[in-house]
Automatic annotation (TrEMBL):
Protein name: Uncharacterized protein
Role summary: May be involved in the metabolism of insect hormones and in the breakdown of synthetic insecticides.
Keywords recorded for this protein, A-Z: Endoplasmic reticulum, Heme, Iron, Membrane, Metal-binding, Microsome, Monooxygenase, Oxidoreductase
GO CC field: endoplasmic reticulum membrane
Organism: Drosophila ananassae (Fruit fly)
Cofactors required: heme
GO molecular function, one term: oxidoreductase activity, acting on paired donors, with incorporation or reduction of molecular oxygen, reduced flavin or flavoprotein as one donor, and incorporation of one atom of oxygen
InterPro entries to which the protein is assigned, alphabetical: Cyt_P450 (IPR001128), Cyt_P450_CS (IPR017972), Cyt_P450_E_grp-I (IPR002401), Cyt_P450_sf (IPR036396), Cytochrome_P450_fam2 (IPR050182)
Superkingdom to which the source organism belongs: Eukaryota
Biological processes annotated in GO: organic acid metabolic process; xenobiotic metabolic process
Gene3D superfamilies: Cytochrome P450
């Protein structure tokens, strides 16, 4: 009996110790709401973020409440630091200590249960494969003339599709996403991803879109409470991600096997795309301890696929929405495009290399990215060792979230951040300039992998559309400037008419 009492006392003591430990803030941790026992701030965070329309808005409200550009939270068992404002955001993006990635259930689920690829890894694996992948992507044309040739072909195909609408109201986003991914797939796999008769891309894009809206940058409930997948696999999004992973894996492996068979048939080196480069590196290494393997290749393709699937097409989609709502902006863009085309040839394609001649277009694109901030919170990063930020102590392995929206809508810097005004990026001579508070692709070595593709596609597609079509809102159509929350912000569905210019 005494032994039972002793064990019960030990158990009660352990529970009480665990309770108080879960509520205790680390010493000199950034300010924020109080931690609840075992749950931290998870329930309060999700409830208030949902009520306000997104976690990015909640973080800024808490920043005002606690009078700090650094917030200290606890989501589940993870300590989370949110960096807001230009100074803190810049410091986090440029310091090596914050180049890590968290290792949690949600991020491993994103990469099919592994900790591989480029986006969600760090350390030696990340350095090695990021450098290899970017070197090979540049070799096959990423950021160069070959990529622009792919963009030109997809732009012409897009113009043909828009012509076939016969001025009927349409939702442009699906065609835009298909065009961007086809450019990317030519660099990765050496061919377009899909023909009009094949539904593969449409199915994958639909799954990617559903995934983006269901989760946030913190991973939702699955990140904090992975066991919920056994209780509510549909509601938590677990089944959706598994379905997406299965379809993507099958699609990627089918393409990889095609490349493998071609290599075996030719018995000669090939350098047309990224997949060939990885397969040949795997052959040349031949070492079981090498990090170049099939799983790493699949996850690297996945990283590029996710990076190119939505943010670029959504930016173009938002730009078209603004043009339909702002005839004054559309007229200025058309006047600039027409003037530039007359200087060369009306058949000349507007490659990114000619961007310096399109100052208003450049300013317009930058204002779309600033105003809508479709990635309001980026990251997540991981502190690789104990450090200090803004005078506060950051524990090792703390998750760091970066509030880009707080920079792009900083009233002290921009003056009127809630006004859509491309002229803010033009100097007195009408020349476009880069503002240091403008950072849609991030900074430092963790800068977005797909920035070169994004900049080229956004510019070239918009110039071609403005050159060839009036963009008109159908009667009764009123697009919303309020975006839907998720991993990235997305516009609510809207329709426009593409009327051929004569």
């Amino acid at each position: 009996m005494s032994a039972l009492i002793f064990l019960s006392t030990i158990l009660v003591g352990f529970v009480i110790y665990s309770l108080f430990k879960s509520m205790r803030r680390p010493k000199n941790f950034p300010p924020g709401p109080r931690f609840l026992p075992w749950l931290g701030n998870t329930l309060q965070f999700r409830k208030e973020a949902r009520a306000l329309g997104g976690q990015h808005i909640l973080f800024e409200r808490w920043s005002e409440k606690y009078k700090s550009n650094l917030l200290g939270l606890k989501l589940g068992q993870e300590y989370v630091v949110v960096a807001l404002g230009h100074e803190m955001v810049r410091e986090v993006q440029l310091q090596e200590v914050y180049e890590g990635r968290p290792d949690n259930f949600f991020l491993r689920l994103r990469t099919m249960g592994t900790r591989k690829g480029i986006t969600c890894t760090d350390g030696k694996l990340w350095y090695e494969h990021r450098n290899f992948a970017m070197k090979q992507m540049r070799h096959v044309g990423y950021g160069r003339s070959q990529m622009e040739q792919h963009i030109e072909r997809e732009a012409e195909e897009l113009m043909s599709q828009l012509n076939r609408t016969q001025e009927e109201p349409i939702e442009p986003v699906t065609w835009l996403a298909q065009s961007v991914l086809n450019v990317l797939w030519c660099l990765i796999a050496g061919k377009r991803i899909v023909s009009e008769e094949d539904s593969t891309l449409y199915r994958l894009l639909d799954l990617m879109n559903r995934r983006s809206k269901l989760f946030d940058i913190c991973g939702g409930l699955l990140a904090q409470f992975p066991w919920l997948r056994h209780v509510a696999p549909d509601r938590t999004g677990y089944n959706l991600i598994r379905q997406l992973n299965t379809e993507l894996y099958g699609f990627f492996m089918g393409t990889i096997e095609e490349h493998r068979r071609q290599l075996e048939k030719d018995q000669t080196p090939r350098d047309e795309d990224l997949i060939y480069a990885y397969l040949q590196e795997m052959q040349s290494n031949g070492d079981e301890t090498s990090s170049f393997n099939e799983t790493q290749l699949v996850m690297t393709i996945l990283d590029f696929f996710i990076a190119g699937s939505q943010t670029t097409s959504n930016t173009i989609n938002l730009a078209l929405m603004v043009l339909a709502m702002r005839k004054d902006v559309q007229d200025k863009l058309f006047a600039e495009v027409s003037a530039n085309m007359e200087k060369t040839s009306t058949d000349a394609f507007p490659h990114l290399s000619r961007r310096e001649s399109f100052d208003y277009m450049d300013a317009f694109i930058m204002e779309v990215q600033r105003f809508f901030h479709i990635t309001p919170i980026t990251g997540p990063r991981r502190a690789l060792w104990p450090t200090q930020l803004g005078g506060y102590d950051i524990p090792k392995n703390a998750t760091i979230l970066i509030g880009l929206r707080s920079v792009h809508l900083d009233a002290k810097h921009w003056g009127d951040p809630l006004e859509f005004r491309p002229e803010r990026f033009l100097n007195a001579d009408g020349k476009c300039f880069k503002d240091e508070f403008f950072m849609p692709f991030g900074m430092g070595r963790r800068r977005c992998l797909g920035d070169a593709l994004a900049r080229a596609c956004i510019f070239s597609f918009l110039v071609k559309i403005a050159q060839n079509f009036h963009i008109i809102l159908p009667a009764g159509e009123t697009p919303s400037m309020v975006l839907l929350p998720g991993i990235t912000l997305t516009p609510k569905p809207y329709k426009v008419q593409f009327v051929k210019r004569t």
